[in-house]
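Researcher: Next sequence.
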Amino acid sequence: MNMQYKHASNILKLIQSSILICVSVFLFACSKQDPNPAQGELNVVGKPLETLSFNYMGAAGVVGPIALAEDLGYLAPVKPNYVGIATGGPQGLQAALTGDVDISSSSFVGSIVNVVAGKAPMVAVVAAYGSPPDDNKGYYVLENSSIKQPRDLIGKKVAVNILGAQAEVMLKEWLKRGGLTADEIKQVTLVVVPPGSGEQALRQGHVQVAALTGPAIERGNVRVLYRDWEMFGDKTLGAYAMSKRYLDKNPNTATHIVTAIGRAFEWANAHPREEVIARFEKIIEKRQRMENSDALKYFYGWGVADGGKLKEEDFKLWIDWLEKDGQLKPEQIKADQVYTNQYNAYDQIKK
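Model: Next structure:
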């Protein structure tokens, strides 16, 4: 599916409109029976749990902090229920709003800002990933490509997993820094491809740029154009969000889940990379989902510290960016409306 940048903002508006419709239809018009109510169980800080289960989405061949937290026992007695693969942050945010999951998939902070600015009742509750400089993820062209600088992308195609998310924003920022005008940026075509298919699209010539990591880079014949951290430094770029409906109904369970995620980040930070990867491999083997685990050996950390606590600067960066890009009006949204650390009790339980 080919989409020009001139259509991207319209698509984003449609996504936001769909979210708001789903909110009114699913969140307020119906209430779901809790299939696994808590019976006297307490959360990590000794408060009664409202429920002993929650639904979440993940990615194939990847172990996220929720799965690691479960394996480490940090989530017990709460049980996470995996309900499928998330194709991107916007989909995960919508699923959390409709109640199909109780916590979003890891989502670009800028996407969360945009959704909350569109009056969706949700908030970011814990970090999901950063952009550490030792990470080999980046945006690549073929080795023999004539593309060397931003201006060379005019008239070319770039693979993204979904519109209105991190890949699109980072590309647009790179083009702006390269001196392209808004009209010239519109001449760069975004091509939506399924997650994991960017390499194939690049090598077959369907696109000229794709986000790659791990095995795709090791196979060679590719050259990096730019990386996220080169533009914005080592920052929290992604977060998990929950709907306000879920938080109002299950504040103690939310605290248990969020804190467990924060503890998983700190466990990974405190152990050697080889030990972390070995644990990931065992988790994938135990869950038996017929996954390819080759990408695990390229794990260099999530780039998240301080138990996943969120910072105002990580959200204000994207509020300012979206205002300058014309997607938000000045003062339309403030950072403290987008995130909260209220449900992260990592500081209370760390030794």
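Model: Residues 134 and 300 are 7 Å apart (CA to CA). The first helix runs from residue 5 to 27.
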